Amino acid sequence: MNNSHTPHTLAKWVINLFFCIGVLSAIAFRALIVVNHFDPALFRPLWYVGVIGYIFFFFYRYVISEKRKKAIEQFGLIEKLQENSCLDDQDRDVVIYLLSSIRKSRENYNYLFIFIFSALAVLADIILSS
Question: How far apart are CA 31 and CA 124, in angstroms?
Answer without folding.
Answer: 9
